Amino acid sequence: MKMFQTLARTMEPSAVLNIACACGRRVAWTRPEAFSRCGPDTTPPDLRRRLRCGACGRTGQARVWL
């Protein structure tokens, strides 16, 4: 059985999730903040698809990394 990558499996307790929109806006979420906003079982493709930029309103344009 193959295990999927999720926020809970990839984010260590001190990790920060960095998010950048194509418009240039950047934000950083701590592990608890990312879990409360998206859920610990969210996969990277789901996260990129669901994120909406607070500045320009675009969805699906985010780059996400730890």
Give a verbal description of the structure.
There is one protein chain. The chain has 66 residues and is α+β, with helices and mostly antiparallel strands. It has one domain (7-65). The chain is 29% helix and 20% strand. The protein has helices spanning 7-10, 31-38, 44-50, and strands at residues 16-20, 26-30, 63-65. The protein has a three-stranded antiparallel beta sheet. Strand 1 and strand 2 (26-30) form a beta hairpin. The longest helix is centred in the middle third of the chain and has 8 residues, at 31-38. It is globular and about 35 Å long. The N and C termini lie far apart (26 Å). The model has no long low-confidence stretch (mean pLDDT 92).
Element layout with pairings:
Layout: H1 7-10, E1 16-20, E2 26-30, H2 31-38, H3 44-50, E3 63-65
Antiparallel strand pairs: 1-2, 1-3
